[in-house]
Amino acid sequence: MEQQEHLLNQARQFGYIEDTQVWLKPFMDFPARQVGQVKDTPEAALVYFAQRFEAFRAKVDDLLARIDESENKGSFLMKALHLKEQIGSYDGLGDFTELHNRLTAAEDNIRTLVARNREKNLATKISIIEQAEALSNTVDWQAGADELKDLRQAWIKTGPVHKDITEEIEQRFQAAVDRFFARRKAFQADKKAMTNRSLDKYKALIQRSEALQNSEDWEETTQKLKVLQQEWKEIGGSLPRKQANELWTRFRAAHNRFFDRLKDHISSKRVEVKDNYMDDNLGRKRALVAEAEALLERPMHEAVNRAKELQAAWKKVGPVRGPESDQVWEAFLGACDKVFELSALEHYVRKRLPQDGPKPTSQEQLNLRLTALRDFIKYDRQEQAVLEENLGKLSDAPANEAFRNMLQSKIRTFERKIRTKNDLMDLVRRRYEGATNIS
């Protein structure tokens, strides 16, 4: 009730009703505009559009929270601009000026960070260019290629710079890289003529591969082996077929050993992925529990429909490990039980309220609900007692195991029903706090 009153006050502060139209008051440079129509009562219409505003504000809050938590804030700029653009046309009643100011502040902050990052990126890329230009004249081909490969990766990972200088620094970096590889290619062309040196090169690559075959530095060694494979292809020269095949078999054996071990390593990682999957499922189920527990604050028909939707969604979430699975299930089941039991109670009460004459007082309505709940609990306990009596008479024969499990399950169900109805008695009392206190 307090929430409804708050929303109504908010709606009246920022909107009004004229004839059967709901209007948003002018704000900032935006004139007053119609946001909807009164379909039921004026108060219901105002509350509805205040709720729509709250939904929009929740989107803004979520986006700003994600921006605060993210290291890559620039990726959220368009999302912030899109939400800001919607402010002028979104049908709701609330303080859109405050949301506009918050989004503007976030936009300004992002733009400042982007500009600052581009300056940092420029300094980083100039440093990479200077290193590449220094390497372009080296005669240490292997080390130079490795270092240029690392520099190329660093270049790719470095963010963008201002557009007006992007092409210039790209060309300068590529020119240094092209010069190095052009000189290396010329050198290798001369080397191909020296077939007597080819054997030494192949043996060196084999030795380096064998030195890496037992490594557990998976990522770096993978890259190194790929470089070695590329170098093998680049050696050239002419060797006898038998000797070339023997060298290749030895070289390939070292690589196969490493990548077979890498395959086993990846398989072990899949177990970790499964654990992460379980944790994600637990988070999703906890979110469903939280939403189910909040349903009692919504209109009853909406709460029942949403509880059914949540139950369907629960079935689609994967498994959760160990005792946490039982705990989160019990919490979800209890929250849904309260919704359905409260719906049944209200249906029971509606059928017994007089259709004509004065409306019962709050005290009378409270008494009617509490009496109904006590009767329901009484019947549940009677049913539970019968089940417990039948269970006590059941022998321990294995043939009775299935029937025993069924009785125990039904007893637990009635225990949960009684517990839920007791909780609802407390809830009903709180909802009628304005009535005279009763024991």
TL;DR?
This is DUF349 domain-containing protein. This protein has 439 residues and is mostly helical.
User: What kind of oligomer do you see?
Assistant: single chain
N-end to C-end Cα span:
23 Å
**Main beta sheet, described?**
3 strands, antiparallel
Outline the low-pLDDT stretches. none
Tell me the series of helices and strands, N- to C-terminal. Answer: HEEEHHHHHHHHHHHH
Based on CA atoms alone, the radius of gyration comes out at: 36 Å
| Overall geometric form | flat
Number of strands: 3
Q: Provide the spatial order of strands within the biggest beta sheet.
A: 1-2-3
Number of separate helices: 13
Helical residue percent band: over 70%
Pfam family, one: DUF349
Protein name: DUF349 domain-containing protein
InterPro entries: DUF349
List keywords for this structure.
single chain; mainly alpha; 3-stranded antiparallel β-sheet; 13 helices; 3 strands; flat; DUF349 domain-containing protein; DUF349
Describe the structure.
It is a single chain. The protein is mostly helical and 439 residues long. Among the domains are: 1-119, no CATH class; 194-271, no CATH class; 356-438. Helices cover 77% and strands 3% of the residues. Helix 2 (42-69) runs parallel beside helix 4. The two termini are 23 Å apart. InterPro entries: DUF349. This is DUF349 domain-containing protein. It comes from Hymenobacter busanensis.
What is the fold's blueprint, element by element?
Elements: H1 2-14, E1 15-18, E2 21-24, E3 33-37, H2 42-69, H3 77-86, H4 96-135, H5 141-157, H6 163-191, H7 195-212, H8 218-235, H9 241-293, H10 300-316, H11 322-352, H12 362-393, H13 401-431
Antiparallel strand pairs: 1-2, 2-3
